[in-house]
Amino acid sequence: MTSLDAIVSLSKRRGFVFSGSEIYGGLANSWDFGPVGVELKHNIKSLWWKMFVHGRDDIVGIDASIMMNAKVWEASGHVANFSDPMVECKVCHERFRVDHFFPNKEFMAMEDDYLEQQRRLKEEIPCPSCQNREWDVPKKFNLLFPVYLGAAEGSKNRTYLRGETAQAMFVDFPLVQTVTAKSLPFGIAQIGKAFRNEVTPGNFIFRTREFEQMEIEYFFPEPKEEREWQKVFEYWRQEMYRWFHAVGIDTSKVHEIEIPDGERAHYSKRTIDFEFEFPFGQKELYGLAYRTNFDLRNHQTMSGKSMIYKDSETGEEYIPHVVEPTWGVERTALAVLCSAYHEEERNGQKRVVLRFKPYLAPYKVAVFPLLRNKPEIVEKAKTVYAMIKNYVHAVWDDRGNIGKRYFSQDEIGTPWCVTIDYETLENNTVTIRDRDTTEQERIAIDDLPSYVLSHLAVS
Ligand code: ATP
After folding, report:
1. CA 282 to ligand 1 centroid distance, Å
2. Bond preceding residue 185 cis, omega within 30 of 0
3. Measured distance between the N- and C-terminal CA atoms of the chain, rounded to whole angstroms
4. Which is the closest atom of ligand 1 to the Cα of 198?
5. Domain ranges for the chain
6. How far is the CA of 328 from the centre of ligand 1 (A)?
7. In this structure, which residue's CA is closest to atom 25 in ligand 1?
8. 295/172 Cα distance (integer angstroms)
């Protein structure tokens, strides 16, 4: 099993992810994606958009504001329900999630009884940080980040940074349906930032207070029988696996967890969490929920605007139901990094290699002049570099020896390294070395773009 330390240190060393505001000592649990990390993240999002928006006719995208009318969050239930049970240690003042200390069932039995929670904590649970059992009374802590618009602070001009991207798809549903004239079933997709004032952020980029989501609200006719919504749900469960394969997440480490009655989010009639074996334990990677028409119904009540859909063929009128698959971008990046990370021995030498799917790799091609002090080789290499950059994102490297350059590109997952040598000057061929097999072949410069592009099809 790859250790989290190995991933964190590689991420920092090579510029995937480093801690935010570092020159000021950082800001706890904020992370910045560096030059190669941003490419990986961008490629993950593009793949998702390609698969679920461009790749099909029944889903369209939107890009909504992060700040929405506060009423959105009242109608959605987030103001009342979007909270974590939290307890503070009176000695060291560290805060913890109460539900993380007890098995699910036991916690659910005392969910609304804070004094009982305190009693059990004092009896059974020493503070993980200072080992005392001086627990305060637990309380619920709302995860929405309030923001105040304009100069004055007060409830009148208060709204929230969005806690999920999903609400915009509900609020915008009537407009999107009108402008696209789509008939049900159809979905609305969005990628964007969400914010949660998490009580226990941590585990690198796994749980942060600011993160990105990729979400789809897939609207379908009001089900007359259970099996109608179950069919839509099952379809999206399968789509999750299409995604796992395309993005290169090791499915032997993915586990479906059916969330039982009483433990689901307030809006859900069925939820499956897709958990992944991260180095720090098996944790939620994605979710799939049947949100019924809870959100559209509540927005209709709160706003007074109709959310009713009229079927043009049957003339039936109803508020559509929705299945929601949801993906975290950072958790995807982490699961992809964990799945791609390999340490291996080649010819007596240890190498670290990120076996990304080629279309996810930050750079597709690295171009090397065999020798940096031979002007004719450097000159030729520059023309090859300029040419290949017209097709794919590429990087130049003329430092150290070729072996070191290969090693360096393997660590960031570059699928192909192209070397320009003396033979290139004679016959316009280059060597191309494969990241995974480390094998090299000679090909004509003219064939380089088609060679690379033909290996970039999504698989
Ligand atoms: P958790 O139980 O881990 O708090 P959740 O069930 O609250 O997650 P959802 O509300 O279902 O998460 O959010 C959808 C997706 O957004 C998650 O599956 C995850 O990929 C991502 N996500 C949620 N919270 C965070 C966070 N704090 N940091 C990074 N990604 C997150």
Report:
1. 14
2. yes
3. 25
4. 27
5. 4-81+144-338, 83-142, 363-454
6. 7
7. 207
8. 12
Ligand 1 interacting residues, C-beta cut-off 6 A: 164, 196, 198, 207-208, 211, 213, 284-287, 326-328, 330-331
pLDDT in tens, 346-391: 778 899 999 999 999 999 999 999 999 999 999 999 999 999 999 9
CA angle 248, 253, 255 (to 5 degrees): 115
- 260 and 288 in contact (C-beta within 8 Å)? no
Q: Hey, is 403 helix, strand or coil?
A: helix
Ligand 1 geometric centre to CA of 272 (Å): 13
pLDDT score at 383: 98
SS3 213: strand
- In CATH terms, 363-454 corresponds, of 3.40.50.800, 3.60.21.10, 3.40.50.740, 3.90.1590.10, to 3.40.50.800
Distance 209 CA to ligand 1 centre (A): 10
Atom 3 of ligand 1: nearest residue by CA position:
284
Burial (CB < 10 A; 0-12, 13-18, 19+), residue 230, is middle
The residues that bridge with 324 in the sheet, in sequence order, are 289
Give nearest CA residue, ligand 1 atom 29: 207
Contact in structure between 206 and 292 (CB atoms under 8 Å): no
pTM, whole model, 2 decimals?
0.92
Class of domain 4-81+144-338: alpha beta
Cα-to-centroid distance, 312 and ligand 1 (Å):
37
Minimum CA distance residue for ligand 1 atom 12? 287
- Measure 271 CA to ligand 1 centroid, in angstroms: 13
* From 30, 145, 199, 207, mutation site for ligand 1 pocket: most ligand atoms within 8 A of C-beta: 207
The residues facing 433 across adjacent strands are 417, 440
Q: What tokens appear for 39 in the block?
A: 């490419």
- For the CA of 289, the closest atom of ligand 1 is 11
Tens digit of each residue's pLDDT (9 = 90 or more) over 400-425: 999 999 999 999 999 999 999 999 99
Q: Cα 12 from chain centroid?
A: 19
Q: How far is CA 448 from CA 296, 364, 387, in A?
A: 52, 12, 9
Q: Give the lowest-confidence range in 141-150, 323-332, 371-380.
A: 141-150
Element (H, E) at 18: strand 17-19
